[in-house]
């Protein structure tokens, strides 16, 4: 299996621009997670989906962030407008069953720099 | 506040030595998992231990869980330079529908 695929791997954008991060989960996995990693705050859960439905978005920092999962093989995380404090590594992950009772598989991350 | 806290934050050892990392957590868990992250890469699952288990082994890895103390330890025996990475504990809570909560990690450096 190809694993969780994220794009872009690196993005540098100017403050105020829209950023769209993309994720293809492992085929057959029912759960998809978006995490954000920074030195200060570590790895934070932003949102997760079960069977394409958002279950918990309490970690989404503010209205500038939105996530969608239009089908089982694709999800996006959008930041509009972006700010320098959004600079971080954004990870997508997926798991076969249960949000926490099983192994989750991470993508390689999208490294976002907002200048 | 962080559910899982790893200790130490950083650890430097020589090849061949053992490395021990600890994780403490606050609330009741269903399971605890350890993940590894190489620099610039995603996290990779190492081992899962359930709340009714006390010890688990996988190759050179040994994980213990003490639910009475709300703590876990990860032991890597006979470390190698390739073990250099950050190690994270993640807790699965007993609350249905909650996702894994990760600690901030221990950065392990193994020098040859």
Produce the secondary structure layout.
The complex is a heterodimer of chains A (115) and B (112).
Chain A: E1 5-7, E2 10-13, E3 19-24, E4 31-38, E5 42-50, E6 53-56, E7 65-71, E8 74-79, E9 88-95, E10 105-106, E11 110-114
Parallel strand pairs in A: 2-11
Antiparallel strand pairs in A: 1-3, 3-8, 4-5, 4-9, 5-6, 7-8, 9-10, 9-11
Chain B: E1 4-7, E2 10-14, E3 19-25, E4 29-37, E5 43-50, E6 55-58, E7 61-66, E8 71-76, E9 85-93, E10 101-102, E11 106-111
Parallel strand pairs in B: 2-11
Antiparallel strand pairs in B: 1-3, 3-8, 4-5, 4-9, 6-7, 7-8, 9-10, 9-11
Summarize the structure in words.
- The complex is a heterodimer of chains A (115) and B (112).
- In chain A, 0% of the residues lie in helices and 54% in strands.
- With 115 residues, chain A is mostly beta strands.
- In chain A, a hairpin with a 3-residue loop joins strand 4 (31-38) and strand 5.
- Chain A is globular.
- The N and C termini of chain A lie far apart (36 Å).
- The mean pLDDT of chain B is 93.
- Chain B is 0% helix and 59% strand.
- Chain B contains no helices and eleven strands.
- Chain B has strands spanning 4-7, 10-14, 19-25, 29-37, 43-50, 55-58, 61-66, 71-76, 85-93, 101-102, 106-111.
- The chains are: A mainly beta (115), B mainly beta (112).
- Chain A binds chain B through residues 4, 33, 35, 42-43, 45, 48, 55-56, 91, 93, 99-109, and chain B through 2, 30-31, 33, 35, 41-45, 48, 88, 91-93, 97-105.
């Amino acid at each position: 299996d190809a694993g969780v695929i994220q794009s872009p791997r690196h993005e540098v954008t100017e403050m105020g621009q829209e950023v769209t991060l993309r994720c293809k989960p492992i085929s057959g996995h029912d759960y998809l997670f978006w995490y954000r990693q920074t030195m200060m705050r570590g790895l934070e859960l932003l949102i997760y989906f079960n069977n394409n439905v958002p279950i918990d978005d309490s970690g989404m920092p503010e209205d500038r962030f939105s996530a969608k999962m239009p089908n089982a093989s694709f999800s996006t995380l959008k930041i509009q407008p972006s700010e320098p404090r959004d600079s971080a590594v954004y990870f997508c992950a997926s798991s076969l069953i249960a949000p926490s009772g099983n192994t989750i598989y991470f993508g390689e991350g999208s490294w976002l720099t907002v200048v | 506040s962080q559910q899982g806290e790893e200790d130490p934050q950083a650890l430097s050892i020589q090849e061949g030595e053992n490395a021990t990392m600890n994780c403490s957590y606050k609330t009741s868990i269903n399971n605890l998992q350890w993940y590894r992250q190489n620099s610039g890469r995603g996290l990779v699952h190492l081992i899962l231990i359930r709340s009714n288990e006390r010890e688990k082994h996988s190759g050179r890895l040994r994980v213990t869980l003490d639910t009475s103390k709300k703590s876990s330890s990860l032991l890597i025996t006979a470390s190698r330079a390739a073990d250099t990475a950050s190690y994270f504990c993640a807790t699965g809570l007993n609350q249905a529908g909650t996702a894994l909560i990760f600690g901030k990690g221990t950065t392990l450096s193994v020098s040859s």
